[in-house]
Amino acid sequence: MNSAKALRGSARAAVRKGGFILTSAFLLSFLVNVLRLAGPMFMILIYDRVLTSRSVETLVALVALVMGLLLVLGVLDYARKRLLARFGAQFQEKMEQTLLRHSGRNHVFQHNKPKPAVGLDEVDGLRGFFHSGSLIAIFDFIWAPMFVAVVFVLHPLLGWACVAGVGVIALLAALQAIFMGGRQERSRAASGAVNQLKNVLIASRDTVRSQDMGVGFNPRWQQARNQARDDSIALRDWTSWFETMSRITTMVVRYSVLATGALLTLQGELTVGAMVAATFLVTRILGPVDRFFVQIPRMFEARQHWQRLTRILANRAEELEDDYAEQPGAPYRLVLQNLSVRSPLTGNLILRSISLTANAGEVIEINGLSSQGKTVLLETILGMWQQSAGAVLINGRHTSRLTDAEAQRVFGYAPESPGFVAGTIEENISGFEASPDPEKVGEAARRARMHAAICSLPDGFKTVIDARGTCLSAFERYQLSLARALYHSPEILIIDQLDSDMLVRIPKKLKQTLTALKDEGTLILMTARDPLGLGYTDRHFLLKDGKLTEQKSASSSNQNRRVAEDAPAAAGQQRPRVAVVRNDGAVSEEPRPKVARR
Ligand SMILES: Nc1ncnc2c1ncn2[C@@H]1O[C@H](COP(=O)(O)OP(=O)(O)OP(=O)(O)O)[C@@H](O)[C@H]1O
Description:
Blueprint: H1 2-8, H2 10-17, H3 19-36, H4 38-53, H5 56-102, H6 120-131, H7 134-154, H8 156-203, H9 205-210, H10 214-266, H11 272-326, E1 333-342, E2 349-359, E3 363-367, H12 374-381, E4 389-394, E5 397-398, H13 404-410, E6 411-414, E7 423-424, H14 425-429, H15 438-447, H16 451-455, E8 464-465, H17 474-486, E9 492-495, H18 500-505, H19 507-519, E10 523-528, E11 539-544, E12 547-551, H20 554-565, E13 577-581, E14 587-591
Parallel strand pairs: 3-10, 3-11, 6-9, 9-10
Antiparallel strand pairs: 1-2, 1-4, 4-5, 7-8, 11-12, 13-14
Bound molecules: adenosine-5'-triphosphate.
């Protein structure tokens, strides 16, 4: 409960933690802006005192004083920028830790976003806002009225000229926001499309090459690039136009103030020093005002980031509260409660009201024809599919709400078509742990019966593989994926479509591995199209039309399957025979194992 409450308020706490830094930066901004008044004061004194008194001593003293103040100004300005950069970094570090620690499985790599957890984009956006100069612009804008007040003190007419200038700049900023908003979005989308295409090409490089798909992809590539280029040029044109307008407006206001000052000086209402100082002050006012207006869209963006982040944290905190309220201290087991899952494509039910209770140390086999939903069922247990009804509970907790670290301890998953991450075999087995334990890596490989094969490679466990494991055979890929699934000694081992080669080539070793895991209390869930006939399976289920029914024995499951397949009655009929190449190279004919091909 407490951790849920802390999570909910963690963004505010992270800002509060940097409160001292933020306040210091704000106060430094005040000092910086006060010191900036030194320039106009210097001008007034030069024109009105030094030139009239012709005193070189005064001039030297003033120059020394101003130089000293400018030096302090530089140091303070630099210091506030450093402070804000640290504030942003501290906020990001704190929030990233919180998000990664509390991320649920369904929050990881969501919506194809490149970030590993939901909320990290928002944190990144806020960090950028804190230290990219936006806060400096806000602070300077807050102190800008100080300069306006000084101009008003010099002469009210000059003050109003400044205010008019600020109005024009505000109008330009509003126009810019209206014209540029959509264009920026379009340009971002167009360059995003190019990046997406690039990622697709990188991921499917071999297929594109082997199928000569370049012919199809090249025009797409050109089209995407052209669109990105055109949008970026259009955006650049508009940006340049507004930048120029803003610069010209500043100059116009500045010269208007100079002209007004000159007029007032001619009329004897202003000194020459005050006239020059007013011109200088206008720049000091319009600069921060302009920068502030430019930052307005970023401020709205930051506000959205903040709102989204606090919503994400609140949702996660709510989930945590629910979890602990549901079944505190429930005994270890996997429970599926009336689980239903719909296809995101068609909306049709893939799984219908599935219920199952499985305990530690059980070996459960689920059979079913192709497309009956075996993979979907396993991946729903893993928390990767959205359920339309029901729940998957591990020790009373929803699987989708386990954190990444918790899920890693609970599950070991050997998928039907294993995929890897480009890196070494050791990194892949250990799930890219920062410092993999060689002992554990070796043991996992041994249990997957792959240790000797890996050691025989020139680089052994340091052998680099790509995402598809192209340098490995299909069997080795499967073994590697099994080793990866076993690395963390999972409580639940999930094997989708057990590889037929495992049964043909190393049935005894497979049995040793699986029975050892069973004895250690690992719950093993396996799927196969046909019953595997392992002999050490505790319970058999049949998945048909999205419904899971328990079978009394493997043979009845098999019978059911035959009925389902509408296959010719096969009582007493011999199983088809297949040619098997043995390790010594000899070829023999054997009954086809009762497993599905991948
Ligand atoms: N990502 C997805 N999006 C939409 N539908 C999907 C997705 N993955 C699977 N399906 C659909 O869900 C149904 C069940 O698929 P699933 O992969 O679970 O079957 P299976 O029983 O494991 O089949 P096989 O034995 O051939 O692997 C299929 O009709 C499939 O088209």
